Write the structure tokens for this entry.
Amino acid sequence: MDYSKVLRNNNKIVSRTGGQRQGPQYTSDLSLRFVLSGSERYDIGRRHLSIYPDSFLILNRGTQYSTDTDLDQQVQSFAINFDQQFLQDFKDCWTFDHDSLLDKGNGNGKAQPEFNETIYPFAGDIKYNVFHLKQHLDDGMQDEMLINEYLHHTLINYFHIYNDEICKKAEKLDFLNQGTRVEILRRLNLAKEFLYSNYNQNISLEDLAEHACLSVNHLLRTFKQAFGLTPHQFLIQLRLKRSLMLLKDTRYPVNEVVGMVGFECPSSFIRLFRTHYKITPLKYRQSA
């Protein structure tokens, strides 16, 4: 169902179906971009990011981007744009204690928060919350108080993810200088984005390291520190997760799914799938 809903506090929710290309545009507010079916490509400068149902993207205010989708796919996208005052008020409540909040008054003139514009995992509480919000809106709900409560909880969910994906991972890097940790993590997220967006291609360590502006050995050491997996292990897990979606939501034969997610050998895929999920791909499809 397609709609664009602007609330009285200027928070905005957009639901769109169908594939199309949209030329250069700017975000007016912090925006969370989800793809509930199919995939959508975002071009941000020289970065080309593909979003699937297991991931979402953050765009800060003022970011220029363009989007494209495969016309052969049934794409369903969902975006939440947070008004700057609503976002700043939430960030203050998240950061300060009650006495400090009372002393801050109306909060005019404060710098607006910025977040790492990268791909984040779409799972757990945030997925549950967003799907419930969309279902209510699809059913015609007009209660703005309830809608804003959902948006508030979406931000809570995102802050938890941001803490796990950015703050905690930066702390795992064994560099004394905080600026160095932040910069290394920024480059590692470029590598992670590349894996998310090109998971079904033949990716070499050299290509990945070049994309992240790191040497191969530097990439291997720091990637494992931050994400707890080597790039190859991360890629295998990502391919297996994407295979779950294809097995559940499409009719492609298992042998075709193998190639679609980037595996070359069906027997190797089946072995890895069974090891990871304790079930064969065929039995998973039947149970799903």
